[in-house]
Design goal:
Strand content: under 5%
Number of helices: 4
Distance between the termini: 56 Å
Number of strands: 0
Shape: flat
Structural class: mainly alpha
Length: 64
């Protein structure tokens, strides 16, 4: 049997979507809020899994 454990990316996506349930009650803007929180949760989970380096995005580029 091939069993794949749930990784942090999936957990982050589900957490973001569950936190956005209250936003869904707000109509179209709630739907956009749910998508935004889902993407944010997925990005944080991918960072925890080592698939995405959020630190590189937050560091300054050292201009000048």
């Amino acid at each position: 049997m091939n069993h794949t454990p749930i990784n942090n990316t999936v957990i982050g996506l589900l957490a973001g979507l569950l936190l956005a349930i209250a936003g869904i009650l707000g109509g179209f803007s709630g739907l956009l809020f749910a998508v935004l929180l889902g993407a944010l949760g997925m990005a944080i989970g991918a960072h925890r899994d080592g698939l995405l380096d959020l630190g590189a995005l937050l560091r300054s580029r050292g201009r000048g």
